[in-house]
Amino acid sequence: MVRRSDITRRSVIRGAVAGAGALAGAGGIAGMVAARKAPAVIQTGGTFTYWGGLIFSDAANSVLQSTIEEWCRSNGFEPDVVMINQNETVQRVSAAVEAGTMPDALDLGLDLALQLSSSGQLVAVDDLYETIGAAHGGWFESVANATAPERFGGSRVGIPFGASGNILFRRMDLLEEAGLTTAPATWQEVADQARAAQQPPATFGLGFSLSNVGDGNVMISIMQSYGGRIADDAGTTVMINSPETRTFLEWVQACATDGLFSPSNTTWDGAGDNAAYQAGQAVFIMNTGSVHIGLLDSDPELEEATGYSPLPDGPMGKISPLNPNIRSIPTTSSQPDAARALCEYLAMPAYSEQYYNSAIYGPVLQGERGFAIFSTEVHGALLGLVENGTAPAAPDQFNGAYAETSTTFAIPRMLQRMVVDGMSIDDTMAQAQTEIEAIYAKYV
Amino acid sequence: MAAIGTARPPVPSRPLMTFARRNALWGYLLIAPVILTLFALIAYPLGFAVWIAFTDRVVGLPGEWVGLRNFRYLIDWSSFTRAVTNTLTLVIVTGLAKLVLGLGLALIVNEQLRGRGFFRAVLLLPWAMPAFVVFLTWRVLFQPLGGGLNLLITEAGLMPFFEWVGIARTGYIDWLGERALALPSVIVATIWRGFPFWFIVLLAALQGIPGDLYEAAKLDGASRIRRFLDVTLPSIRNSIFIVVLMSSIWTANSFENIWILTQGGPSDATMILPVLSYFGLQNQRLGEAAAVSVAILPALLLMVIVTTRLIEDDE
């Protein structure tokens, strides 16, 4: 007689849940144990100052701040964590470098890291970069390239975290009304769909910033996808005045002539596209994801009607720059060993998964790929960006002259001259060529 | 005959310093702390900024003397020329408008009106509010879609008129996005923020004019306009000079108004020197940033000298 099995469906489920719970618990405990083991702090005591970069997610900011504070206390330091609006990082850091009051470690964008590394302000962390990579399945190739030593004077000057980049947001409801159901694959399709779906003056097709803010520089990527270049492969000879830039400018001019751009987009501040989209005034925007976070709270209905897709291709292919943030240690840090240990600690899943759950960033380490959040639509798109995105500035060279071209908003201002002043394409290119040549001449 | 000895009177020991000199030295000693403080707070930073403007200093590196290179770079930069023109326009137009508005309101509030205290308080509000709040509010008012000004114009049924004269596009006016409107819009916001300072200083000056001057003018048969031209204006001339000087310096160095409203755009239509200097700082190129600021110094210095001379002449 075959003995009837005591295993029922319910007991299997119960067992599975218990097992999962045990695994999760063990994982948590293991994580905590690992977390305790991780920071090999040699020297303790005193104040540890960290400047974190504020992002749009309060939850993510809070996780970062409390984690560092907790880590400091458990390692015998008095924490001094200052969260800085990322629009003010350059000023704060510049003043601190001049005054000799840099923190022990800080979050940086690559532009500023490039400038600081060129004046020898950042500690080389190549060994730490290797150690962390080895512990978490290796770095994504795009992240490794973006922070490659050759870009920063021969060394790694920071530990990457949180890859940022733009994705295309679209109003699916308005597009469907116009019979358009698929995401545009090219910039020309974006313009065509915008033309079909916009309902001015209530809604305009392209909520793209052409103003003197960072968002305006995304237009450089579109120009590059049309084959336009700031400079040659060596990064020394300016090449704005080219047939490829002309094609790009013709596309912009057509969009402007057809009234596709949102009004005032030439003077928007950093939140201009966010505001226009959240007010329902734009069909397409390019955004890093902050709009998504805003919509989840403020307008779930609009969030539901929003589609997310990678930046489209131009005639020369896709240019979708990936910009990982980095944690750097200034050469003036009074606690360099502690700063290294903290960087190592913050790369651990026990913290990083919690952070990514609320931040709008793509992963940087292969080990982070499995985090549940990266299977959701927006974060999945960011994972796609990490897997397929291009290096910062590519195909141009990311050097000091390129950084200055970006921070003086030379390309958005070139577009303003054409769109606002009605300058001809030839004159627009010629003036931009002269202006950017003057910048590059300073770096020869 | 014995000669009578004439004992020479003792020569009084000569003091090391005369009374006047001692007094002067004592005076110098007393003002030394102030001089030193002024030097530390004004002369040193100013001198240092001028020095940096002639170097290629970047953040973190000392830099080397490059002579006029930074200034040559600026002169060749089209944005710099535009910034100089815009800065001058902003200073002159806002100055004149604030004079008219401030003086006009001060004259009204100086009269024996009911609720004069209330009006004074209300008129000071724009000056009392933080600048960034003021300009953010104006930014909202200037919004092309849903902005206060456009709503007002639409509600008043005036939009078709603005469309007809070519100021408005279909259904909206792009106050900050159109070259022709951007600087005037910024000027309006800047005047609104700044006129209370003129108002309060000129009101104080008006209240200091002795009433018998007006009485005498009246007895002489002077009309209201003559009394204004011959009594009021000469009496508040010095206050006007001082306000012109201070307000011009503040406006020439203003940043929030432009940065919050337009960031210098569109197409440099509102670019001014402080914003251009900020771009230099963003690049950490302290030499160039300082050169932009130093470039306006001769004009401001000239204004200070002329105004001081006018005030001295008046006295």
From TrEMBL, chain A:
Transmembrane among keywords: yes
Entries under Gene3D superfamilies matching the protein: Periplasmic binding protein-like II (3.40.190.10)
TM annotation in the entry: 12-34
Stretch forming the signal peptide: none
Alphabetical keyword list: Membrane, Signal, Transmembrane, Transmembrane helix, Transport
One Gene Ontology cellular component annotation held by this UniProt entry: periplasmic space
InterPro entries in UniProt: Bact_solute-bd_prot1 (IPR050490), SBP (IPR006059), TAT_signal (IPR006311)
Localisation per UniProt entry: Periplasm
Family: Belongs to the bacterial solute-binding protein 1 family.
Listed name of the protein: ABC transporter, substrate-binding protein (Cluster 1, maltose/g3p/polyamine/iron)
